[in-house]
Automatic annotation (TrEMBL):
Species of the source: Nonlabens agnitus
The protein's role, per its UniProt record: Catalyzes the reduction of dTDP-6-deoxy-L-lyxo-4-hexulose to yield dTDP-L-rhamnose.
Single GO term (MF): dTDP-4-dehydrorhamnose reductase activity
Domain RmlD-like substrate binding: 1-273
Catalytic EC class: oxidoreductase
UniProt xrefs under PANTHER family: DTDP-4-DEHYDRORHAMNOSE REDUCTASE, METHIONINE ADENOSYLTRANSFERASE 2 SUBUNIT BETA
EC number: 1.1.1.133
InterPro entries: dTDP_dehydrorham_reduct, NAD(P)-bd_dom_sf, RmlD-like-bd
Keyword terms, alphabetized: NADP, Oxidoreductase
Protein name as catalogued: dTDP-4-dehydrorhamnose reductase
CDD domains: dTDP_HR_like_SDR_e
Pfam families on file: RmlD_sub_bind (PF04321)
Length: 277
């Protein structure tokens, strides 16, 4: 079962798992915050895996509506995990690099101390805590800087905005991660489940700033758009300056090699052109 099937990650997940017996539920099909409706769907379909792609992702808006962010990313996730335990399903959930404060100088390991500096990160951390507390079989995959050929994301903004000059921050470093590759990895997990449940980090291989990522996107597209780096980028929510994730545990536990950032970008751009034609 895929919950949040109409979102950026959900769309990629539905496409990647097309060969499986999948129940795909979009936001209009299921309100993840409604206990009775979620319980009804789980009891009806009895899924072996529940892939939760539903999330509140408006990082800045979360500062103005923290209750909504905590409800969707926190309490609703805990409820889902509790119901998953009741039917003996494995829940696959996605968290974020924003559970860290960005003060590290080397890639964050899954066991490193968490300290979110914005409401969004706090709400995602609450979801993690409640999943663990539920006792459900679970995989929590923290991912960073997610982008795709569809949906609303930085990759598409760089290609589609009509600005004469793009000013992009050069003081935040992380790992751009393709939703296509996240979905491919999840398929691998389901097909080769080692039953080693817990919290893991997943990203494409390669760390860079948002400015460097924007330059890479423009180069991939063969465009000449003007991009200027900036150290000042005012946003309502604070962002960690450094949130590169150490995904080495993925290799050891799942025997999976994450694609390089340049390969991921090329694949996403190829699909973007297909969707745009």
């Amino acid at each position: 079962m895929i919950i949040g099937a109409g979102g950026m990650l959900g769309i990629s997940m539905v496409h990647e798992l097309a060969g499986f017996d999948v129940v795909a539920l979009e936001k209009e099909d299921l309100d993840i915050t409604c206990y009775s409706k979620v319980r009804q769907q789980l009891l009806k379909h009895q899924p072996e895996y529940i892939i939760n792609c539903a999330a509140y992702t408006a990082v800045d808006l979360a500062e103005r509506e923290p209750e909504k962010a905590h409800k969707i990313n926190g309490s609703a996730v805990g409820m889902l995990a509790s119901l998953a335990k009741q039917i003996n399903a494995t829940i696959i959930h996605f968290s974020t690099d924003y559970v860290f404060d960005g003060k590290a100088t080397e890639p964050y390991k899954p066991t490193d101390p968490v300290n979110p500096i914005n409401v969004y990160g706090q709400s995602k951390l609450l979801g993690e805590i409640l999943i663990k507390r539920s006792g459900a079989k679970h995989y929590i995959f923290r991912i960073s800087w997610l982008y795709a050929p569809h949906g609303k994301n930085f990759f598409k903004w760089v290609l589609e905005n009509d600005l004469e000059e793009m000013k992009v921050v050069d003081t935040q470093t992380g790992c751009p991660t393709s939703a296509l590759d996240v979905a491919s990895f999840v398929k691998h997990v389901i097909e080769n489940d080692p039953k080693k449940h817990g919290t893991y980090h997943f990203s494409n291989e390669g760390s860079m700033t948002w400015y460097a990522f924007a330059k890479a996107i423009i180069k991939q597209a063969g465009l000449n758009n003007k991009i200027t780096k900036t150290n000042k980028f005012s946003t309502l929510a604070k962002r960690p300056d450094y949130s590169t994730l150490d995904y080495s545990l993925i290799k050891k536990v799942f025997n999976y090699e994450s694609p390089k950032a340049c390969t991921a970008l090329s694949n996403v751009f190829t699909q973007y052109k297909m969707l745009s034609s």
